[in-house]
Fold:
Amino acid sequence: MLLIKASARIVRFFVFFFILFSNLTVFSQSIDVGDTVSSDKMLAKAREYAYNNRKSEARKVCRQILQHDSTYYDAAVLIGRTYAWDGKYDSARIVLNHVIEQRVGYYDAVDALIDVENWSEKYMTAIKYADIGLASHPNDTGFLYKKARALNNSGNSKDAVIILNQVIAINPSDKDASGLLLTIRKEKMVNKLTINYWTYTFNNDNPWSFASAAIGRKTSNFGTVSLRYNYASRFGREGNQVEIDAYPAIAKGIYMYFNTGISDKKNFPFSRLSMEPYVKLPLSFEMSFGFRYLNFDDSRIAAFDSNKVVIYTGTIGKYYGNYWFSVRPYFTRGKERWSKSVNLTVRRYLTDADSYLSVILGTGISPDEQQYAFDPGYYLKSSKIDIDYQQKIANRFFLNCGTGFAREEIRAGTKRNRFSFDIGVSVLF
Structure:
């Protein structure tokens, strides 16, 4: 057994030196190791290379330092970190573990190893190295924070919260610990209550009023599931509808939008069904394709004749910096021809993903707007512009408001102006 352990150490030793000194070449403008240039200055140069995405050059300078002084561990740590930044975690581990074998508990090497294991999603190993660091530095907030992060990522948010509170007690201004603690608390708020109100006014018709109340919950199998009640007052009558939304995950990078609902057929279709898979694509693109089914026959839950309307839709979206761009067309088969509509959305995210300003330009009528889903054939032509704003307040409240204008043709040769205003509030709990 002792022979096996000794052999393993010898193998690791030679692998370490192979990684450390492989491909060692002298620069065309090589820095000579000697009295004129100190190792500290060379390390500063290596760090400059590393932080400017010239990591291979940084490693070469560090190897020159180690050839001169094999105990200059900061150079070896930088080699390990640059390997980790390149995703070469095994090489980083070999270099960094050799450092802590030579100098037990060396702070920078342990700190780098914790990062390597967190980045490679080896959270239990990250916790082990954090404990090694804390054995020598019991109240070090850096080690404590990284252990809490690994605990949370491994599913142990309870112990993570205890450690984060310890960090904040030591340093109340620690933004990383406060931010992670806030994130954990927010993740535990899996329920969301939302109330919205809309009013539409026209230049030649009575105003319309709408309201909705929804309760949603994050689930592990079906994504966010919501139950929503809708109310509409228009054409001198009041209507009611109940809907269910869900966003189940299908596979990695693929999820489904599912919606179904039923109403008293006053201002809403009697029943509806929507299905639309979304696929995340490279370069921050996303696309989808699905349908909306509307049934206007209240004598049966589903109709397949002239009482039903099927709208085909999809979307192509792109995230670019703090912006999101999306194009969504709708195609509906009529008796003689296809009718088409399209929405273009440009959204600017503000302080976070929950605070934004959106501008929506559209032609035609969207069946996703419940205010117009009572009869997609009611309008001949329409063009609109809507502005929507949402702001997160105190990390659990969301205020939403919007306004818009549309020019609508309700009969051949008859047009009207429509002005809209909406306001809503949501709360997480």
About this structure: The chain has three domains: 2-120, 134-188, 189-428.
